[in-house]
Amino acid sequence: MYTQAMDLPNPDGSPTLASVDSEAREAAFNDRAGRGEIVEARDWMPEAYRKTLVRQISQHAHSEIVGMLPEGNWVTRAPSLKRKTILLAKIQDEGGHGLYLYAAAETLGVSRDELLNALHTGKAKYSSIFNYPTLTWADIGVIGWLVDGAAIMNQVPLCRCSYGPYARAMVRICKEESFHQRQGFDLLLTMAKGTDAQRAMVQDAVNRWWWPVLMMFGPHDKDSQNSELSMKWGIKRITNDELRQQFVDATIPQGELLGVTFPDPELRWNEARGHYDFGPIDWTEFWNVVNGHGPLNRERLAARVAAWDEGAWVREAALAHAAKQAARERAAA
Amino acid sequence: MSDRKEWPLWEVFLRSKAGLDHKHCGSLHAADGAMALQMARDVYTRRQEGVSIWVVRADQIVASAPDDKAALFDPMADKIYRHPTFYELPDEVNHM
After folding, report:
1. How far apart are CA A58 and CA A67, in angstroms?
2. Would B95 be classed as within a structural domain?
3. Closest among A91, A98, A99 to A70, alpha carbons compared
4. B68 and chain A in contact, CB less than 8 A
């Protein structure tokens, strides 16, 4: 509905009429974005702004639907009917979040099929965190508490993002996300009050997830190439390192409530800074997982591709049925 | 994959409770109206956000163009006499 016309550059690299014009427009655009004005779907925007948004929103959408996989792993093995219905509701939410975000990306002139194709062929990324396995039931609690907790830290500032359709999708998502984190903590609290074996399971899950969760905030500010432009455009409001620190500060006291420790010998409260200090992150592991060499990258992608391929006949049949119904209605009229 | 036909895009409008207008809440792809309604119910009313749903095919919506914003809406900026606060009445006239 909102396809953007794009000016192709001259083959000799000389400026086109449109590009001279667009320099002035771009300056005006940067001004407006800098003042906190909201950009809507069919407004003029610099091509780089559009591309950045398509990349970020679609990555985010892919993360939501790939994120259904590690949790789906435990639906049939949830320990009670209550926990099973909660888990199903959460997974259904994640599917919904993916939809809101795909719809927001589509307002930028890309089709859903193009977006999914980029995921299925490995051209588009999703959050590295979902390439780790969910080995025990405690992992489901830790995903809610830490993974969704980190996601909330990231997502709340996006509700004020300069691109209207993305910001509105984020408002809806953040409202629902709070349930995800609370049910996770509630699950862990229940296990923490249980047997020694259950407490050990919780501790083991925290040990395995803690560092990958800190990596979710992305590279350090000094190594983050896209950050500066995104800040200027109001797509991003708070830097990776600031968000990571906020998350650590909020989470450590919660861990104390659960009676768990964190696998970081350098973690301690720094009175002078008014923040927790924490140890160095293993960025080699991060880039390995991002570049496809995490524990489950292949399995996750294969599951998505299989779901798409195996659903093809349903999509085609539904369209054929709709066409037949429409033809019948026309004939009857 | 990209040559396969996509389900059309629908815009979803929700009435959150009786007495309020339907309000745009999002979009989805569906093969036909009945499916769009069913999916809108599944996706946008999981927490009782609505009591009534409209779905409209996105390609059926006629919208004003962003470039026409000034021509369409600026002429109203100087018509302040259309607002009740334009008129200063004596205090004796209560609640008019």
Report:
1. 14
2. no
3. A91
4. no
B7–A319 CB contact, under 8 Å: yes
CATH number of the domain enclosing B39: 3.10.20.520
Number of domains in chain B: 1
Q: Distance between CA A236 and CA A230 in Å, rounded?
A: 5
- Residue B63: domain span: 9-86
Interface mutation target, options B6, B11, B13, B67, chain A, most CBs of A under 10 Å: B6
Q: A111: which chain B residues are within 8 Å (Cβ-Cβ)? A: 2, 6
Please give the full DSSP string across A48-59, using - where no structure is assigned: HHHHHHHHHHHH
pLDDT category at A18 given cuts 50, 70, 90 is low
Q: From the CA of B31, how many Å to the nearest CA of chain A?
A: 5
Q: Each residue of A26-64: pLDDT tens digit?
A: 888 888 888 889 999 989 999 999 999 999 999 999 999
For residue B53, is it within any domain?
Answer: yes
Q: ipTM of the predicted structure?
A: 0.88
Q: Which residue of B has its CA nearest to A320?
A: B31
- Asked, for residue B38, whether it belongs to a domain, the answer is yes
Report pTM.
Answer: 0.90
Would B93 be classed as within a structural domain?
no
Distance of CA B44 to the CA centre of its chain: 15
Query: Residue A194 pLDDT more than 90?
Result: yes
pLDDT by residue (tens digit) across B15-27? 999 999 999 999 9
